[in-house]
Amino acid sequence: MPSFYDIDQVEAFRQMEYPAINVYYTMQNGQDGMWIGYSCDYMRTVSKSHNFLITETNAQGTGWSSQNQWPPYDGQLRQNMYAFLSGGANMVEYWHWSTLHYGQETYWRGILGHDGQPNRVYREFQKGAKELDKIGGQLVNLKKTNRVAILFSHDSKHALDYMPYTDNDQYKVNMMYDALYRQNIECDILPVDKPEMQDFSQYDLLLVPSLYVATDDLLLKISDFVKNGGEVVMLFKSGYTDYDNAVRPVLAPGPLAEACGFTYQEYSSINTLTLKPNDIGASDNTVNTWMEFLIPTTAKPLAAVDHKFFGKWPCITENQYGKGHLTYIGTVPSADLLWKLISRAANRKNIATVERKYQYPIILRSGTNMSGHKIHYIFNYSYETKTISYPFPDSRSLLDDQKLSLGKDIAIEPWGVVIGEEK
Amino acid sequence: MPSFYDIDQVEAFRQMEYPAINVYYTMQNGQDGMWIGYSCDYMRTVSKSHNFLITETNAQGTGWSSQNQWPPYDGQLRQNMYAFLSGGANMVEYWHWSTLHYGQETYWRGILGHDGQPNRVYREFQKGAKELDKIGGQLVNLKKTNRVAILFSHDSKHALDYMPYTDNDQYKVNMMYDALYRQNIECDILPVDKPEMQDFSQYDLLLVPSLYVATDDLLLKISDFVKNGGEVVMLFKSGYTDYDNAVRPVLAPGPLAEACGFTYQEYSSINTLTLKPNDIGASDNTVNTWMEFLIPTTAKPLAAVDHKFFGKWPCITENQYGKGHLTYIGTVPSADLLWKLISRAANRKNIATVERKYQYPIILRSGTNMSGHKIHYIFNYSYETKTISYPFPDSRSLLDDQKLSLGKDIAIEPWGVVIGEEK
Amino acid sequence: MPSFYDIDQVEAFRQMEYPAINVYYTMQNGQDGMWIGYSCDYMRTVSKSHNFLITETNAQGTGWSSQNQWPPYDGQLRQNMYAFLSGGANMVEYWHWSTLHYGQETYWRGILGHDGQPNRVYREFQKGAKELDKIGGQLVNLKKTNRVAILFSHDSKHALDYMPYTDNDQYKVNMMYDALYRQNIECDILPVDKPEMQDFSQYDLLLVPSLYVATDDLLLKISDFVKNGGEVVMLFKSGYTDYDNAVRPVLAPGPLAEACGFTYQEYSSINTLTLKPNDIGASDNTVNTWMEFLIPTTAKPLAAVDHKFFGKWPCITENQYGKGHLTYIGTVPSADLLWKLISRAANRKNIATVERKYQYPIILRSGTNMSGHKIHYIFNYSYETKTISYPFPDSRSLLDDQKLSLGKDIAIEPWGVVIGEEK
Predict the structure, then answer these.
(1) Is the pLDDT of residue B55 over 80?
(2) pTM > 0.90: yes or no
(3) Chain C neighbors of B121, CB-CB under 8 A
(4) Segment (H or E) for C207
(5) Closest Cα to residue C159, out of C234, C288, C246, C236?
(6) Chain A interface includes C116 (CB < 8 A)
(7) CA-based, 20 to 30 A from A386: which of A124, A183, B386, C72?
(8) Are strands A148-152 and A188-191 parallel, antiparallel or unpaired?
(9) How many CA atoms, within 13 angstroms, populate the side-chain half-sphere of residue A5?
(10) Closest Cα in chain B, distance from residue C158 (Å)
C-alpha cells in the first residue's frame, strides 16, 4: 500500500522485481476515475517496465467501521477495472475475495460478503473477468508517450506541510491533475526531486505545483526548458527556498526570476477575491488564500484582483522567454481559472486537440498495445447514457466486436466503457 | 447514579434491598417528561418490587460550571415530581437541599440557593410536598401491566458503538421510546440480553432497536412471538452477529430470515433520501444514514427510496408470519415514519386506542393504586393552558377533589397536571 | 511580551526601570487601533513614569507559519506608530529589522523581507521615522488625566475562566473598552485587585466588568464612590464571591445590594432574547447568554426581556444611591445596548461631550506634552478619505505645519492621522 506522498517511490520501486500498488477510491456518485488515473500516471514513471499490478482495490464497501459503506453502483466495479488497464495496469486484484466475520476489517468487504454466496458484485466481477479472458491480450502492456508532465516534489510538499499557508491542502498537485484530467489531457507525473528524474526532453508542457524546495540546478533546467520552446504553468511559492528549505536571500523567485519575468518582495493571505475583467475566459473569475505582489520586468500581466490595495499588482502573469512561455499563478486560482490557463498553454502546442473536444464525465485514455495498435478507452462516468461521435480513426470495438468509424455516433451506457483498437 | 447504558442493571439491582436511581433531565422549553418516563419504564422491569426511589433529581439549574443553568419555569418542578410518581416512583428527593459555596458543584443548585433563604423553587417544592401529604397514599406503589415492550440490548449497543455506522447515536432505543411516548403508548423496557428477561408472554407488541448481538435462542423466541400472533417492529442490523459479536456466515438476517420474510446480501451508507409514494402515511417521507438491500421471500414491501440504484430494493417490509406480523425497517426512518409504522402495528392489536387520540404535549400515564383503583395522570408539557375532553371513565380529581366525567372538558394549566382516580 | 491577563503587571513593572511591552494586532481591514489603545491605557496605570516603550510590534505579516500573513495596507504602519504615541508610548520598535531565512519565525516578517532590500514597508517606516525626527519632541512624554476608568480584576477573570458561564469570552473587559473606544471616551484601565490601586478619587465614571471576586472592602469603596456622586456601569456576577472565590452566603449581590438597589436569588442561561420596548435607545435591543432575576428594592428597572417567564424580572436597572447612580446590567447586552447605557451615564457627567460627536472610524486621542500644550490626534481607520470639522481649539497641524481652526473642515486620508497642538 504505497503512499504517493510519504514514500520515496523512485527508490522503493528500484528494489521491486515487478511494481505493484494498492489503490482505493470513491464509488457511487463520487466515481470519476481520477484517483485511478493519477495513480497509474504516477506509477508508469517510477516503474521500470512501464506497467504494473494492482494488488488491492475496492470490491464492495470499505472501511474500518460500518460507516461510509459505499458499494459500487451497477457497472462501476467493471468500469474501474478497465480504468486501471487504460492507465497501464496489467492485473487487477481485489481486497479481498471473501469478507472477514470479526475484527478491524469486518466491514472491509470483499467480492463475496459475509454469507459467502455469489452476489451482485460477484456477478459483475465475473462478467469483467470473462471479457478479459477474451480480449485481455490486446489490452495488457499498454505503452504511452505523453507530451505533458506534472512535476511532483516530495520535498516541497513536506516543507509546505511544515510551514503551511492554508488550512486546506498545501500542495495542489491534485488540483493540477484534476484540471488536466477533466479536459482529457493525458500526462505523466514525475517525482522531480532526484536529478535522474529531471529530463524534460520528452515534453512540451510542464505543470509545476508550488515547487517550494528546489536546487538552483532544477530551477535552471525548468528555465532552459522554457527558453528552448517549452510551455510551463507554475504555481505560487515556486523557487522560494533552496534544497535545505532555507529561504533564498535574494529577490524572489530567485533563479526563476528571468524565466518568470518578474520579482516580488511581498505577499499576503487573502480571502476569496474577484479578478478584474481579463481575457482568460474563466466562468469562476476568483482567486483565494494567498497572493504574491508580482512586479513584472518582462512578463505580461494576465490578471489582477479587483481591490484597492491588492489590485496594485498582477497575480497571474505570462512571460515569453526564449522560444517558450512561462505562465505563473501567484495565487490559488479557481478550478476553472486553472483549467483555462492550462488550455491556453496547450493551445499554443496543439496538445490533445481532439481529446479536449470532450470533457468529464466523458474521459478518453489511449495507448499502444503489444501489437503496435492504438487502443482507445472512452469512459462514461455518469448515470446517464451518453452519445458522442467517435473521435478516433476507424477502429474495432473490442467488447462487442463492432466497427467504430471516425465521427459516427456511439452510445456509452451509464458507468460504462467503449474500447476501440485501431487496425 | 446508574447509567442505563453502561451498567448491568439486572445484576446491580439484584443486590439492592430497595431500588433507587438518580435522574437528571432538561427543564424550561425542553421539559417533556420523556427521560423521566424512560427511566421509570426501565426501572420497573429491573426492580423487584416494581416500585423504586428517586434519590437525586434537578432542583434549580445544574452543572459543573455556570454554563447551562436552566432552572425550572413555574410549575415544572412540581410537574416532574408527579411524572416520577406516574412512572412508579415512591419517593422524589432532590440534589440537594441547599447549594455549595465552593468546589466543583458550586452551580449544581439545590432547592435553596447560595443565600439559604426560601425562594421561588422552595415555594413550589413546598406546594407539591403539602399535596403529597394529603393524596400521596393514593399514588404510591402504582402498578402497571403494559402490552408493549422495547427490547433493550446492552450488548448490541456496545457492539454498535465499537463498529459504528453513523456519527450520531448508534442505538436508536431513545428514538423508539420517543415514538411511543409522544403518541401515548405506555411500555416496559426489557434488558433482553439475559435469558431470564426473555419472557414476552405478557406483550402484544415488541419494539426491537437494532438487535445486532443476539443468541440464536433469543432470535427464535422473537420469531415464535410473531408466529403466535405478536406484532414486532424491528430496526436494521438486527440478528447480524452472534453472541460473540461474530458476523453470522449465512444469508442475513440469519435466524430471523423466516420471520422477516426476506434475506439480504448488501447494504450501503446513504444520505437522506425520499421514499417513493407509499401508504405508510408519514408527513416526513425520508430515510437516512443506512440502507439494507432487502430481497423479499414472503414479506410485503412497504417502501423503497426514489433513487435509480437504491430504489431497486425495498427498505421497509411487513411480513405476516404465523398469526402475527414483523415490520422490518432496514434503514434509519424519519421520526414520523417510525411513529406511523408503530401505529400501524398498534392498530392491529387495538393498543392504546383511547390514549392515542391525544398526543404530546398532552401526555397520559395510568396505573393501579394500592386500593385497586385506576389512577390517570394527564400532563400538559407546554406554556399554554390546554383543554381536552376527559378520556377515562368517571373519576375523582385528586388535586382539587372535583368530579371528572368521561368526555367532559377539563383545562390543564401550563406545565400542569390533572390526576384522576376511578372509583 | 507581557500578557495583560496572566501576569501581575503591577508587581512586574515595579521591578522594571523603564516599562516596555510588545503589542501585536490585526492589520488590513481589521485595523482599528483598539488593541493599541487598550494596551496603552493599561500600561499608563501600571508604569511609574506614565510613559513606556513598545519593544516589539508588527512590521509585515506575522505568524509561526505562512498562514494569516496580513501585511499592512499603505498608511497603516505609520498610523499605528502614531496610535502608540497617542497612548503614551515614547518609542516604537519593530520585530524585527530583517526577516529570518529558516526556523519557527521564517514568516514573522520584519521591516525588510527575505531579500534584504528596501521595500514598500521600509519606505513607510522611513517616512514616519523622518517625521519623528522633526516633531517627536512635541509628542513624547504625553500625559493624560482621564475621568473614566475600567476596573480590571485578574482574580475575577481567572475565577470566571475556572467556572465559566459561556463558551465565549468570560470576562467582558474588551467589550466594555470597545464601547468606550468607539464613541471616543478615553479611559484608564485599573488593575483593581490590589488595595493600592483602589483610589477612584480622580474619576467620575467607573466601568466594572463582572467583578466576580472581590473583597468586601473593594465593593464598599465602589459603593462609596456612587454615594459621593460617581457614576458606575456594572456587569452581572459582580460581588458574587469573596476574595477566596467562595460564594457569599447572603442575598446577592452581597455588599453591593444597597448601592445596586436590588437583590436576586436566581439566574438562568438564556438564548438571545429581545427586550420589551424601553427608553435606552439601542438599535440592537437584545441580550444573551446569562440573566439574573433582579428584585428591585430602590432601583429603577430599565429593561426586561419579552418572555413569559424571564420577563417577570428586570435585567437592567439604574439606582440613584446618594449623589450618584449605579447602572447594573444583569445580562450580556448587545454591543449597542452597552454603548447606550454608557452614554447615558456619561451624559449625566458631561464626559467627552465634544469627542462623542465623532465615532469610529474617526478616533480622537488627546494629552498634554512636555511644553504643557494640548496634543490632539485624529485617526481615520478606514480606506476612505474622511472630512470632519476640527473639534478642538485653534491648533497647529504638526505633520504639515498648517493652521487648524475650531469648526473648520479638515480631510484625513485613508489610514491617516492629523495631529494638532494647541498653542
Answers:
(1) yes
(2) yes
(3) 266
(4) strand C205-208
(5) C246
(6) yes
(7) A124
(8) parallel
(9) 12
(10) 14
